[in-house]
Design a protein that fits this description.
The complex is a heterodimer of chains A (734) and B (159). With 734 residues, chain A is α+β, with helices and mostly antiparallel strands. Chain A folds into three domains: 5-193, Aldehyde Oxidoreductase, domain 4 (2-Layer Sandwich), CATH 3.30.365; 214-285 and 335-426, Aldehyde Oxidoreductase, domain 4 (2-Layer Sandwich); 433-733, Aldehyde Oxidoreductase, domain 4, CATH 3.30.365.10. Chain A is 29% helix and 20% strand. Chain A contains 20 helices and 27 strands. Chain A has a seven-stranded mixed sheet, with helices on both faces. In chain A, strands 12-20-19-18-13 form a five-stranded mixed sheet. In chain A, strand 23 (596-606) and strand 24 form a beta hairpin. The radius of gyration of chain A is 28 Å and the shape is globular. The termini of chain A are far apart. By secondary structure, chain B is of the alpha+beta class. Chain B folds into two domains: 3-78, Beta-grasp domain (Ubiquitin-like (UB roll)), CATH 3.10.20; 87-158, [2Fe-2S]-binding domain (DNA polymerase, domain 1), CATH 1.10.150. The termini of chain B are far apart. The relative contact order of chain B is 0.15. Chain B has five helices and five strands, in the order ββαβββαααα. In chain B, helix 2 (87-94) crosses helix 5. In chain B, strand 1 (3-9) and strand 2 form a beta hairpin. The chains are: A alpha+beta (734), B alpha+beta (159). At the A-B interface, helix 6, helix 8 and helix 18 of A face helix 2, helix 3, helix 4 and helix 5 of B. The structure holds FE2/S2 (inorganic) cluster (FES) (2 copies). The site of one FE2/S2 (inorganic) cluster has 12 residues of chain B, from loops. Chain B: GO terms for molecular function: 2 iron, 2 sulfur cluster binding; metal ion binding; oxidoreductase activity. Chain B: Residues 3-79 form the 2Fe-2S ferredoxin-type domain. Chain B: It comes from Litoribacter ruber.
């Protein structure tokens, strides 16, 4: 199936593409000089088949995606889709991820939409490639494409000729437009999609061979540390320049306004330089207001009218029965990536290359162009995986730091590694939120009216082209200021119940003192916590079974089914409460448009020690057509544990001087001792569209835990994180 | 301040010219080009940088090089014997125990140290053995299962 060397060379000449010998992280090994050679790459645009799928001369198929591997296993899932539609073995399919020099602009890898977006395009491109190949072969053999079949990259005629894709192409590249009309496989015939395909990168991880951006060592690379201001908005007065530059190994310091960094040959020398800067620099600081203990009060009492997101309440709704009210809060929480952000940048002959674990290589390119006043044509951003990010963490900011330093010190590749405190103190957090819920329920458990009023800061402040979104840019001599965008939909994500009852949802934009942006699920985490906790409160108030009450108000069969399956798995009706143990459940359809997820939590109270333990969680997910069964389970389990950690342990603390939660000691997350038993069940629907699943668990888990705590202890906890101190233990003892 | 420091890493003696106060993690990653141990906090709080020091899993981000002369240092790169993986590595692959994988070094090294001392750990002991290592992706339950599976694999090979 492979081309001979001579043929290969000819092939390359004709196709004008250099795609030989890519492995999973192709550009990680690129020498810096190669990195800037983009002439081989002819961008044919989004509609060209070979912008997404290429047949390599070495007998492999390369899939190109603008999406980034974030630990969610997207590479395996996209390879599966291509292998399925093209009828080639998984071992023949390689993938190239986010690189502005090679892949299409697919904006961000976020919002659980990689399979729905990139996956769909790759499926169309593969189907188109299949059609082209079949037509070519049919033409060669004077038959019709319908007569031919494909297996493992071989096209054959029943009882007749056969040829590989490569023979059929005859050293030409695969060319054509994606028409979306090429026949796609019937899901009934799937052999690869839906299977638990192992991820190839795990072998590299367990042998220490994996390559994260933190691991790249480019020839001649030097190390940088940025001295972040001691708090938001602080201005640099002076710093011990001579002293730091006199330290062994230090190349120089870079200062632009209040942006301050040290460059050194060796990494530890840069760290020592940073420590010296931290001790010896002087800053003029601002205070943060309002203080943390007044924040929610300020939200609840804000005087703006808010925006009505939906209103179907009849005018006389208040007369329909007793009005129940409850207020809930969600604190600032952090992404808390285990590997602090890192980037490498190199400026050579006016061309800049940045290696970054950003979620959006193209938006980053645009924003860096704005930051440095450069033409986008002279910038290339290469995506290299980092530690899991779960949204907009420090990745882009580290990229901007590196770009600024490369501009100030052209020549060598410069590696910027954030320290732990940088990531904890400067990443944009998931916004604090407050909720006022009002409901009326009759004695039969029918909800007559519902009203949600919520307050939140922005859930998206990604650098989409404006340099002010980089923290470094705010501190320059000629600062670029942050301009908040008009996007507030993230705040009320999942605030509108999927349940059918009259309701009104009001959203208030509230500007908090902390930096906030997109974190897994955006507002859905807080909104579902409030919504699904309040559903439980209404059920208990009316004496209805919380499961029955949910089912009664749902009109979507798939929603009901996840709940029903869940109830069966945990034997809800007979197990709901036993002694000091209680099960709580919750449900959401993420974004009201993606995966359906129902979850139950089992909490055991320990009245003697005034403590409780999350023992177990069981989840049921319907993500439509399952691409990679094991990948879907893995990601869902992960989301459940992460959300349990947010729910039980996490709150970013600040005081007037700045962020207090600056290490894992002051911002603890869940460790093994608290990890519950986890079970995930999948409802596969091969006939349906695949739905985004990565964020489905975040919201429901929080409410399921709160509802379980209520079953186990009789106390209703409404303020995240849910702590044993909030429980009325006297109630339990009596 | 640059001095000769002798380190025994993965069975080989290395003489490095570095500041002896440098934490072990940096020369492992930079001078010796071992990417296994990761930087996570530099504060001995997260376990990303775990290595085996005389067989015990320990963070390498604060221990100075000078304090480790004469200590047998092993990194995750040394667990496999050529193509032949350690049962822990096999178990992690079999159960697909990773998401982003950044914490996997700490998990594997901690498991190695645990199973060496206690070849038959109960789940609570596994949790204790991995307690120092943080995972943000929530892969914990798979890590626990993988260590359990590794223990079984080791038993069946020694029988
Ligand atoms: S990096 Fe060493 S424990 Fe975190
Ligand atoms: S798998 Fe990502 S931190 Fe553990």
């Amino acid at each position: 199936m492979k081309l001979s060397d001579i043929n290969r060379r000819k092939f390359l000449k004709q196709s004008g593409q250099v795609l030989v010998g890519f492995n999973l992280l192709p550009l990680a090994f690129c020498t810096p000089n190669e990195a800037n050679v983009m002439s081989d790459f002819a961008d044919k645009g989004k509609n060209a088949v070979d912008s997404w799928i290429r047949l390599n001369p070495d007998g492999k198929v390369t899939v190109l995606t603008g999406k980034m591997e974030l630990g969610q296993g997207i590479k395996a899932a996209l390879r599966q889709i291509a292998a399925e539609e093209l009828d080639v073995g998984m071992d023949m399919v390689e993938i190239v991820i986010a690189d502005t020099g090679k892949t299409q602009d697919e904006r961000y890898t976020a919002g659980s939409n990689s399979i729905e977006g990139s996956g769909k395009t790759i499926r169309n491109a593969a189907a188109e490639a299949r059609r082209i190949l079949l037509e070519k072969a049919a033409g060669n053999w004077n038959t019709s494409p319908e007569e031919l079949s494909i297996d493992k990259g071989m096209i054959s005629q029943p009882g007749g000729k056969s040829a590989s894709f490569w023979d059929v192409l005859q050293e030409k590249s695969l060319e054509g437009e994606i028409t979306e009309k090429a026949p796609k496989k019937d899901p009934k015939d799937y052999k690869v999609i839906g299977q638990p395909v192992p991820r190839e990168d795990i072998l590299a991880m367990v042998t220490g061979k994996s390559l994260y951006v933190q691991d790249l060592r480019l020839p001649g690379m030097i190390h940088a540390r940025v001295m972040r201001p001691p708090s938001y908005g602080a201005k640099l007065i002076d710093f011990p320049k001579e002293e730091v530059e006199g330290l062994p190994g230090v190349i120089k310091t870079v200062k632009d306004g209040s942006f301050l960094a040290v460059l050194a040959e060796r990494e530890f020398d840069a760290i020592k330089g940073l420590q010296r800067l931290q001790m010896g620099s002087r800053w003029e600081e601002k205070t943060l207001a309002p203080p943390q203990d007044e924040l929610y009060e300020k939200m609840f009492n804000s005087h703006d009218k808010g925006d009505s997101i939906e209103d179907s309440l009849p005018s006389n709704w208040q007369e329909r029965g007793e009005i129940l009210e409850a207020a809930y809060t969600r604190p600032f929480q952090m992404h808390g990536s285990i590997g602090p952000s890192c980037a490498i940048a190199q400026m050579e002959n006016g061309k800049l290359t940045v290696w970054s674990h950003t979620q959006g290589v193209y938006p980053m390119k645009r924003t860096i162009a704005d930051l440095l006043g450069m033409s986008e044509d002279n910038i290339r951003v290469i995506g290299v995986p980092g530690s899991g990010c779960y949204g907009h963490n420090g990745a882009d900011d580290a990229g901007a730091d590196a770009a600024l330093l490369a501009a100030a010190h052209p020549g060598p590749p410069i590696r910027v590694q954030w320290m732990r405190m940088d990531e904890h103190s400067w990443e944009p957090y998931g916004s604090a939120m407050a909720f006022k819920m009002i409901g009326i329920v009759d004695s039969a458990g029918n909800i007559e009216a519902w009203r949600t009023e919520l307050w939140s800061d922005a859930h998206s402040a990604r650098p989409g082209g404006k340099a002010g979104h980089f923290i470094a840019a705010n501190t320059l001599e000629n600062p670029r200021n942050f301009e908040p965008g008009g996007f507030s939909a993230g705040s009320y994500r999942n605030a509108v119940p999927l349940y059918g009852f009259p309701r009104e949802i009001v959203h208030h934009d509230f500007s908090t003192p902390l930096r906030t942006s997109a974190m897994r699920g955006l507002g859905a985490y807080g909104n579902v916590f409030a919504l699904e906790s309040f559903m439980d409160e209404l059920a208990h108030k009316s004496g209805a079974d919380p499961l029955e009450m949910r089912l009664k108000h749902l009109h979507d069969e798939r929603a009901k089914e996840v709940l029903e399956m869940l109830a069966e798995k945990i034997n809800w009706s007979s197990n709901r409460k036993k002694g000091n143990q209680g099960w709580g459940l919750a449900f959401a359809k993420y974004k009201n448009a993606a995966s359906y997820f129902a979850v139950a939590a089992l909490v055991e109270a320990d009245p003697v020690n005034k403590d409780f333990k999350l023992q177990k969680m069981v989840g049921v997910i319907d993500a439509g057509q399952t691409i990679n069964l094991d990948g879907l389970k893995n990601q869902t389990e992960g989301g459940m544990i992460q959300s349990a950690s947010w729910t039980l342990f996490e709150e970013v603390k600040y005081d007037s001087q700045g962020i207090v939660s600056n290490t894992w000691a002051s911002y603890p997350i869940m460790r093994f001792s608290h990890v519950p038993e986890i079970e995930v069940h999948v409802i596969d629907r091969p006939e349906e569209e695949p739905l985004g699943a990565g964020e489905a668990a975040q919201g429901p888990v929080s409410a399921a835990i709160a509802n379980a705590i209520f079953e186990a202890t009789g106390s209703r906890l409404r303020d995240l994180p849910l702590k044993p101190e909030q429980i009325n233990w006297d109630k339990l003892q009596s | 301040m640059i001095k000769d420091v002798r380190l025994n890493v993965n069975g080989k003696e290395h003489t490095l010219q570095i500041d002896p106060a440098t934490p072990l993690l940096y020369p492992l990653r930079n001078e010796l080009e071992l990417n296994g141990p990761k930087f996570g906090c530099g504060l001995e709080q997260c376990g990303s940088c775990m290595v085996l020091l005389d067989g015990m899993a320990e963070p390498s981000c604060m221990r100075t090089c000078s304090s480790l002369e004469g200590v047998e240092i092993r990194t995750i790169e040394s667990l496999a014997d050529g193509e032949k993986l350690d049962p822990i590595q096999e178990a992690f692959i079999e159960l697909q125990a990773a998401q982003c994988g950044y914490c996997v070094n700490g998990m594997v090294i901690s498991a190695k140290s645990l199973l060496e001392k206690n070849p038959n750990p109960a789940d609570e002991e596994i949790k204790e053995g991995l307690q120092r290592v943080l995972c943000r992706c929530g892969t914990h339950s798979r890590f626990i299962k993988a260590v359990r599976l590794a223990a079984e694999k080791m038993k069946s090979t020694t029988l």
